[in-house]
Amino acid sequence: MDLDQPTVPLTGDVRMPLLGFGTWQATGEAGYDAVLAALDARYRHIDTATMYGNEKEVGRAIRESGLRREDLFITTKLPPDRVGRERQTIEASLAALDTDHVDLWLIHWPPSAPGDSIPVWREMLAARDENLTRAVGVSNYSVSQIDELIQATEETPAVNQIRWSPSLYDRQVHAAHRDRGVVLEGYSPFRTSDLSDPVLVRIAQAHDVSPAQVVLRWHIDHEIVVIPKSVTPDRIRVNADVFGFSLTAEEMRDIDALGRSG
Ligand SMILES: NC(=O)c1ccc[n+]([C@@H]2O[C@H](COP(=O)([O-])OP(=O)(O)OC[C@H]3O[C@@H](n4cnc5c(N)ncnc54)[C@H](OP(=O)(O)O)[C@@H]3O)[C@@H](O)[C@H]2O)c1
């Protein structure tokens, strides 16, 4: 991947851009327009899912952008009710996205029957071994649920995508992922933030940026992947403009302190 944005290494030679573009609730033409605008604003990592019902629009936007497939990082996710139909599901994702592989395939939520998690994980690993995806991981898993997968298969999920933001910051959860070699990917950075929080506003003013940009930069400086969503062209651009400043150690500590264990 030829990219001047920060990335985090996953397994092998796979590198994941720390900034991605979220697409939940960005469907139909609005979804297509948003992804095209995001690629134009230099996002190179797109987060979708079977459940979002927009893989076709994401695929069309990628095609129309004219960018090379190898310069993009695409994540999609397996809905937990597809137990036993994993292969069919990724084939449908690849057809809709119009690509022969994704970069990351995640189990969207732990299956409701706890015994199903390990067979699903084995199917994910099989898809990776067949090069349908370059890396595999999970979403909405607890650390103990991740440990069950590792114990059963000796294969560590490359990524766990969970709700994350300054107000949800938990140093121990972050460290537990790092200790296992699992990259933490945060979702809903704005939905779970108070963008009028005085700490965020003060730090934003100090850098002449918005509190939303501070939230995104805080993830990146912690080496946590972040995937803001917007269908608004100005916001799409501003949310990608987070590489022209960085936060001081003191500012990072002040933002951490907004969380549960800051
Ligand atoms: N794995 C999972 O279970 C899971 C669950 C939820 C989300 N996700 C992923 O994470 C992505 C992001 O999470 P999310 O969509 O829940 O929420 P989010 O990115 O935290 O917030 C999106 C909302 O914030 C608004 N917004 C965007 N930029 C803004 C800015 N600069 N200032 C103020 N408001 C702004 C958007 O409005 P407009 O669109 O109107 O501009 C939208 O209403 C999703 O799209 C999806 O890809 C994964």
TrEMBL record:
Transmembrane segments: none annotated. Residues 19-258 form the NADP-dependent oxidoreductase domain. Pfam families: Aldo_ket_red (PF00248). Keywords: NADP, Oxidoreductase. Belongs to the aldo/keto reductase family. This is Aldo/keto reductase. It comes from Micromonospora fulviviridis. The lineage of its organism: Bacteria, Bacillati, Actinomycetota, Actinomycetes, Micromonosporales.
